[in-house]
Design goal:
Mandelate racemase; three-stranded antiparallel beta sheet; Enolase-like_N; Mandelate_racemase_C; TIM Barrel; metal-binding; alpha/beta; Enolase-like_C_sf; 12 helices; Enolase-like, domain 1
Amino acid sequence: MSIITKVDIRLVNIEPEVERTDASQTFVRQETVLATIETADGLRGTGYSYTIGTGGSSVVALLRDHLAATLLGADARAVEALWTKMLYSTRATAFGVVTALAMAALDTALWDLRCLRAGEPLWRLAGGAHSRLPVYDTEGGWLQLPIEELVENAKASKAAGLRGAKFKVGKPSAAEDAERLTAVRAAVGDEWQIMVDANQSMTGAEAIRRARTYEPLDIAWFEEPLPAEDVAGHERLARSTTVPVAVGESIYSVGHFAEYLRRGAAGIVQVDVARVGGITPWLKVAHTAEAFNVRVAPHFLMEIHASLACAVPAGMYVEHIPQLGAITRSALTIEDGCVVPPESPGLGIEWDEDAIADLRVA
């Protein structure tokens, strides 16, 4: 029987492996919310979501006090029905980041169960579009790093075979951003991909001005230049520059993505499985992007996005930011600058239960 008998919620704090600062914030810690769902036939599926320093206890409270109970006694195979049930049970707080993060923890656990029951890896059961995808690095491009370190990190990523790297922008002057990027471009050559990320720090006018400084450097994309709610500003920016505009990590619903795509305000979609509410809506966003002939390069969560990006035709890149090493025994396979999605049934993540117990805070 696939009836859900138990839902266990845990909160684990993971310290970042390096200092991570962008134009808007510093990555304090990764609050990792784990949800494990058990069924009457003895299967256990584990999913997760995250915050970068605040709000983890609020996500746990929503799960513990409201959402987990909606699944008890239900058939775990009815993933779409259960996602909708969770949404309706939180209608007064949806759509929003805390609700999306809570729903994502449960939805990814349900997909883990679904794949385990089928004996298939996530990337294949969810579509199986690509056997591998290129990887770009973000861990060496943080805003606080001096130019010399940016250059050395870029050269190291290129030497390791990665296909590109992302660099944080949003220094006080456009000239300073341009100086940093120009130094990197000179070091890695014209063929290697350079992406930039402003983390929602700019006005529309400033983003247009800075995009013009990026065009001669052949930047692969300009990520989150404006606050995510400013669809009109992203639309104006996209029309004013040849640099593709990338958005998605701070968008929490399928409908919001659809509005960006309909208005031509997104050249690359960076949907985040945790922040959009799970695998179920993630796939809807990815296929909507495909319908608009837009590629998908997911934000963060490389351990699960490697499988999801490979599942869909629109998959483009996987972002390299090591995230779960402290609480897992598995590691992604990267060959010739490409990630190879896990072949093991389920999400492909082998959790280290002893490490989770040591780092658990709730």
